[in-house]
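Before the break, one more example. Copy the sequence into your notebook; we will annotate it together after we see the structure.
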Amino acid sequence: ADRKVLTKLSDQVNELNPHYKSHEFFAKTVAEKSGGSVEVKIFPNSQLGSAREGLEGALTGTIQAVKVTSGELSTYSPKFLVFSLPYVFTKKAEVFAALDGKLGDILKAELQKQGFQIVAFFDTGFRSIFNGKRPIKAVADMKGLKIRVINDPVMIETINTLGALATPLPYGELYTALKQGVVDGAEQPPVALYTMKFYEASKYFSLTNHFYDLNLVVMSKKFFDGTLSPAQQKAVLEAGKATEQFERNLWNEHEKDVISKLQAAGMQVNELDLTPFKQAAAAIVEKNKAKVGPDVVSTALSYTGK
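Here is what the structure looks like once it is written out:
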């Protein structure tokens, strides 16, 4: 039998987030598949530090696994910036097909060079625009709206290109800024919008789906290759695959639930035709292709309705 190994898994989220339940599912599944020899201990609430510290810890060996965003991985490889480009994907089915297929393979190979083993891709939904002035049904409805963004050049350019006024602001100041009318709105995935109670300060939520928020669980490659036996490695990867399916289903349920809660709280939620939005932002994708890697961008786009 394999010797027992302990895997510390770090995350920023609290126990109410579906990601925490997914980590529990992973821990249980990896224990079953490894005959109890791989024990995963979950540390939520940033107990082991930020995601960036988690990645550094995985490289130095102080921690074995961490959940991060694709943005945080772009410091290690620009290929992860493909998820920071607008409208590369507009439907979850496209994202999942790409991650389960060739795009996932490219990203896994890329991270292995950087010292990480991808264990699972986690869904956190698309980012969409909410505001207090009007529902967005066409690109023209964006005109003149002051929309809070994170301080990211591509995000700023995207919102401005769609005709709104991108306004970088710290996340902690957003609620007050909405209440006081410093900004008209912002962009968030549905779950974050609900948990932060932004519906109290904004009436319209338009599912513009302009960026996909990808999260990943990665493991230290040194630990994966050096500490785990081949059977344990197989158990980790199989448990990771099973966890992906579990997490996608769980997140989907959670998101549907959240949308109905937002409507119950008085928010107007609308879907819209995203084709004109995608066309409006196409130049941004083109302009950033070289930086991100033409191979990654074209692979990603090959899974979409172009």
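Residues 230-264 form the longest helix (35 residues). Strands lie at 5-10, 38-43, 65-69, 116-131, 146-149, 165-168, 185-188, 204-220, 268-270. Try to locate both features in your own notes.
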